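hey so i finally got around to running the thing on that chain from the lab meeting. sorry it took forever, my laptop kept dying and i had to restart like 3 times. anyway pasting the input first so we r on the same page abt which one it is
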Amino acid sequence: MRQYAGFGSAADTNSRFHYLLQQGQTGLSTAFDLPTQMGYDSDHELSRGEVGRVGVAIDTLEDMENLLDGIPLDRVSTSMTINATAFILLGLYVSVAKKRSIPLTEIAGTVQNDILKEYIARGTYIYPPGFSMKLVTDIMEFCQKHVPKWNTISVSGYHIREAGSTSVQEVAFTIANGIAYVEAALKAGMTIDDFAPRFSFFFSADNNLFEEVAKFRAARRMWARLMKERFGAISERSCQMRFHAQTAGSRLTAQQPQVNLSRVTLQALAAVLGGTQSLHTNAWDEALALPTESSALLALRTQQVIAHESGVVDTVDPLAGSYYVERMTDDIEQQAQIYLEKIQNLGGMLKAIESGFVQREIQDSAYRAALAQESKEEIVIGVNLFHTEEAPIKGILTINPEIEKRQIERLQGIRKRRDSRKVETALKGIEQALQKQENIMEPLIEALGVYVTLGEVSDLLRKYFGEYRETAVV
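ok and heres what got predicted. didnt touch it at all, straight out
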């Protein structure tokens, strides 16, 4: 089981990666700040006050080089939580590997690249869904040819669950998104057994241990059957639902935050019992701020105790045969299947998103959950039961505002030093690929190599395809 406990902080991110690798972490996990996710450079007016706040800021190849300095890209798997600008961040990662003369066949990792759940649950989209889907398949096609160890998409139920969905909805909507990506790849001319083995999934690990185990088991069974029966996959790897799990951030409480240690342990155990191949445990203080070095290390140690001391990893599917778990698995699968049929009748996931069906279902579930907590039908320790007087928590991580200033200065310095003619030529190369409706990854990587910025690429695409404006869901 690959263990993740990475940092999203812009404050000394690289040294934190190195520290956790030394402590037994087997993969890097990084999140990017909001401007990077939304396609804005750090000196854009909309970036003001947001640079480095919820993740690391990446404007140019130099930023990615600094982030990955000293990290052996041919020996470490890197997971990048990025969607609307996933093609740019992957391009930067590839560019770093090329500069180090590391064969692209040797780098491994995952780029989330799941834009549909952004329209459903999270909101960091830029372009209209149709063009965004082309960017997804461009990544898939490029990696199939050049970066074969890369997981080109991580279909994410995590953010759907964090937005307030039930476990059934998490399974159904995640699989429906997966179906949409498979269909898009087939339409782009790819063959199922060529790209499907690099599909991965990303689920939440919530509090109800048995329900979560059943959820993972149901999802794996449903995906395997879909791939065989609907899409005609022959390879066993195409039918496997390889998934990463992260403990539920929405379950962390600011009240009595150290109780989160117990919640995270329970959630992590559910993910392992349910068959996760990769796990990220949240730190106990993440309801208050980004994790400190000590809290992130403790989160990693939680995984390591489960992996090395509990014995639950010694057998596959350890709860198989339990009447309760088997019945719950069947129930979740049947209820999720009803949702899949509704979505198909609406014309597929894109139509279901555009009509607001999926968003309304999640909103209704979130509302019912809030009412359950208010009425104490659902107990949350320290929030609606077992209150205590608490002293203020000390030692939480704060982000130095100087980080934004230094990032902007670094970006503006690169703009002055780079070759403006090469930049102009490179941007024209991307533009030509857009006009011809070709895969943009190779001209994009060339452009990033001459220090074209993330914002400049994003603005070029905005010029051609505009920005998506969500329809109000009532």
